[in-house]
Input
Amino acid sequence: MSMNLALRHLRVVVAVHDENGYTAAAKSLHVAQSSVSRTVEEVERRVGVLLFDRTTRRVTPTPPGEQFVAIARKLLADSETAFNHFDGYLRGRHGLVSVATLASVAATMIPTVLSGFRQHRPQVEVAVQDAFSLEVLDRVSQVASHERCKRLGRGFLSWG
Output
């Protein structure tokens, strides 16, 4: 069964549940009450059940509505975690950095540099490969030709 719901659908249903009504949900979401009403009706049509019992004074979740809200909360939390993880990747807070260097540099300077780098980027994994000078140049030029090559910033890799 494909319900084809977006995160905004889930946010609206959870807000109606949490705020105990359409007007308060609309206010908390900064949208019109009619938009909240239409969105809940759309979700109910797509899932095939009523999520809320409505009276002129109250909005009460149905048993399927309670189940839906529990699932929606998990999906919203998971999506927030995933987007934060991706944002961290884009900002260089985690991921993998490969360093190709001369063996003498790997033995003498890299440990100090990595210590400082790890203080600023503890979630970034670093792979150090030592090689001869021509191999290092070859590896760097191969990586630089990839579109996904990203610059992390000069301050972290300075010799200070």
About this structure: The helical segments are 7-19, 22-29, 33-47, 63-90, 103-108, 110-120, 133-144. The chain has seven helices and four strands.
